[in-house]
Amino acid sequence: MPIHNKLVRDRILEIIDQSGKKYSSRILDEREYEEEVRKKMNEELAEYEAAQNDEEALEELADLLELIHAAAAIHGADFNELEAIRQQKAEKRGGFSERIFLIEVEDD
């Protein structure tokens, strides 16, 4: 039996049940959950970086977005609050759409 030891989506156990396979699982405490969400974000980011086409990239971005929703809740916010913070930062400092790559800044 393969050992996974990782955070999985909420319906994965149901899907495994439907396949007739056996599994073991447990519910994480709050500290473990936050740690595993962070690990899963890194896993999904690596998968996004390895994506070979737009379809794969979008699938991985959707996974990252799901994890961002989870992380926002861990930190006491919902996605709307997170989006408001993003918008404030974009208004103050801009976004990334202009593709600016800073090479260096002269020291005083």
From TrEMBL:
GO terms for molecular function: hydrolase activity. Pfam families: PRA-PH. InterPro entries: MSMEG_1276-like_NTP-PPase_dom, PRib-ATP_PPHydrolase-like. The keyword Hydrolase applies. Residues 31-68 form a coiled coil. Keywords: Coiled coil, Hydrolase. This is Phosphoribosyl-ATP pyrophosphohydrolase. The keyword Hydrolase applies.
